[in-house]
Amino acid sequence: MIRATLTALIAMVCSLPAWAVEIQEVTSPGGITAWLVEDSSIPFVALDIRFQGGTSMDAPEDRGAVYLMTGLLEEGAGELDAQGFAQATEALAAGFSFNAYRDSVSVSVEMLTQNRDQAADLLRQALITPRFDQDAFDRVRGQVMALIESNLQDPDSIAQERFNALAFGTHPYGSSQLGTVETVSALTREDMVATHTAVFARDRVYVGAAGDISAEELGLLLDTLLGDLPAEGAPLPGPAEYLLEGGTTVVDFPTPQSVAVFGHRGIERTDPDFFPAFVLNQIMGGGNFRSRLMREVRIARGLTYGIYSYLALSDHQPMIAGQFSSSNDLVAEAVAVTRDQWADIAANGVTDEELRDAITFMTGAYPLRFDGNDTIAGIMAGMQQDGMPVDYIATRNAQVEAVTMDDIRRVAGEFLQPDGLHFVVVGQPEGLGPSN
Q1: CATH code assigned to 2-226
Q2: Are the C-beta atoms of residues 258 and 428 closer than 8 Å to each other?
Q3: What is the CA radius of gyration of the chain?
Q4: Does the N-terminal or the C-terminal CB of the chain have fewer CB atoms within 10 Å?
């Protein structure tokens, strides 16, 4: 019943227009910083806590350790075993979510105001004193290994992992964050303890908070949750050298429909030309039916049900990347049309209508992202990790609107690399060889 009440309260949180989000910078008595959007209209608060580093911190022989360790954080802490921790969380109507990504480990938190102190104490135990009981370790490791085995038969996973391996080689970006059957099989409980110490530290934490909590209350809460973590964690991985040149790699896989992953070197989030590149990608393959790739590959020729591109803003090597699926007899044409559109925009730019439509869509859709305290907290944590200024939300749409046709032409010519575009195609495509 209490859990249902929390769910109902979360659903009541209304969408906030981007310009209505007022961010406070908070520093705890212990020196931990966070960004806060205070809203006392509903007795509920959400936190998003991110630790920079993520699965890229794995050593080659321990690949999968961070992913597995993160999956064990809700499997018991302090004096509570896995069942006891789950029951305590449910009794408080709290919600904790632990996730591992390439560049971060995130902890998402939802708490009722009346239970905030007790929920924070429970979460603190998960962050500071996780149990890593052997039975939970064996069970969750088995689940991860089953997922690894499943991915070996999934064309989408095969395509993405082969592209990453070719693009990044021995850097952690070049292998699956889940690890392999061999590396995960070799992990031990002691590896989990060491990985936890390496990942969770105060020198790499970013916190977003939204809801019914004051700046003073948040400061005290931060010290409760994070104050006992080590001051410094293990070294972060270095830059990833991008190794791929233009071309096509075919991975033979028995399926009637091929999956194609494509891309080339990208642009840093801090580059002065980021916003023109951001708008340019929206025009190229931003995911809606007005994008160039959707119009030319799907609508005009019927070669796929969907195609998209995106700016992959990874910490250690950005890319522009994309993906589509197509039947084996059509995928070669879809690859050719995608290359042609890449080259056409690089050489000739875009139309006034395409630029106008992209800006209208991007500025109109942005406020819709702010649809709840949990989402707002996550956006703020991500902003901090990406090095954005605290006023980014207020200025973002103006920066999109400031992109001109001259900006698009210049950045298209400099940023898009038709000759550097590489496709990894998984399936049995007709008319495509491994070196086409």
Answers
A1: 3.30.830.10
A2: yes
A3: 23
A4: N
d(CA 238, CA 7): 41
What pairs with residue 100 in β-bridges? 105
CB neighbours (10 Å) of residue 262? 24
H helix or E strand, kind and range, residue 52:
strand 44-52
Q: What is the CATH number of domain 247-427?
A: 3.30.830.10
Beta bridge mates, 225: none
Whole-angstrom distance, CA of residue 177 vs CA of residue 157: 12
Cβ partners under 8 Å of residue 303, min gap 6: 297, 326, 330, 331, 333, 334, 337
| pLDDT tens digits, 327-385 | 999 999 999 999 999 999 999 999 999 999 999 999 999 999 998 999 999 999 999 99
Q: What is the pLDDT of residues 136-145, one digit of tens each?
A: 999 999 999 9
Mode of pairing for the β-strands spanning 247-252 and 422-427: parallel
- Which residues lie below 8 Å from residue 182, measured CB to CB, with a gap of 6+? none
Per domain, the residue ranges of the chain are 2-226, 247-427
Q: pTM to 2 decimals?
A: 0.91
Q: Report the chain's terminal Cα–Cα distance, integer Å.
A: 60
* Tokens of residue 333, six digits: 């044409």
Residues contacting residue 436 through CB under 8 Å, at least 6 positions apart: 247, 248, 250, 332
* CB-count burial class (<10 Å; 0-12, 13-18, 19+) for 378: buried
CA–CA gap between residue 202 and residue 300 (Å, rounded):
52
